[in-house]
Amino acid sequence: MNKNDLNPDASPEAAYGARLRSMREARGWTQEDLAKRTEYSSVHISAVENGRKPPTLRFSRSVDRAFGIEGAADSFEREYREIRHGSLLEGFPEFVGYEGRAVEIRLYEVGVIPGLLQTMEYAAVVADSEVKRGAITTEQAQERVALVAERQSALVRPHPPLVLVVLDESCIRRPVGEPAVMDAQLARLVEFAELPNTMVQVAPFEMGTRRPFNLPITVLTMADRSLMSYAKSAQRGHLERDSKFVLPMLTAYHQLQAEALSQKESVAMINQLRKGTP
User: Fold this and answer.
1) Is the pLDDT of residue 162 over 90?
2) C-alpha angle with apex 87: 84 to 92, nearest 5 degrees?
3) Which residue(s) pair with 167 in the sheet?
4) Which sign, positive or negative, has the C-alpha torsion 221, 157, 162, 100?
5) What is the layout of strands, in order, in the sheet containing 227-232?
6) What average pLDDT does the chain have?
7) Which domains does the chain have, with CATH numbers?
8) Does the N terminus or the C terminus of the chain have fewer Cβ atoms within 10 A?
């Protein structure tokens, strides 16, 4: 297939390939030149540009390094994530990229255990439930479970982030899957709380109006101390990078932590649930 046959509108992969070729040619590089800079073969570069081979996360990150656009809003990693996770909420693929590099992660969740703390069995039940409702396909469900594993891998990197978690009480009381699945998930929460770089707290129902958030939210602190937040509703998500909007969320998060149960009290509540006591 020659360059005139490429149609960026044919598919997201075709648009990715056309953009890759355009940026390469803008720098005066041949496919061999780009291959040397990414440690991929020129045949591989050609296959991606022409849409014969889908891009991968590793390939996208290699290309970003070659072009000097790592972490940029227009990075190929971001485009790859949008291709792979097209069924996810707006802004979430980009958020995941930042989450994997954050030095501090603060999250608040309602109704469901957050992905960073899910067991694979729990994640599969949650994804399968959306398939049954017709919200996503079986293939998209499999991708979501794979994404959970990918996100959690960032927690065991050489210098793991500080992870602060506040769970609405509904997260631990809402049954998901068979009792064994839920019990294993609650056990996972207790194990997570014991790690040296984590804290898990439960926001009890009786907090009432003292709860500063009504929807799930995550605040990230990056290595340069910049802040960003991600908030989601049932149908939409929003990634915010402007500190003047993120700082009030960080303040509210600290207020939430002060009102929530301590980690010791939270773990005791989780263990009581595992024993079948209220």
Assistant:
1) yes
2) 80
3) 109, 202
4) positive
5) 198-203, 162-168, 104-109, 217-221, 227-232, 237-240
6) 88
7) 3-84 (1.10.260.40), 92-114+154-274 (3.30.870.10)
8) C
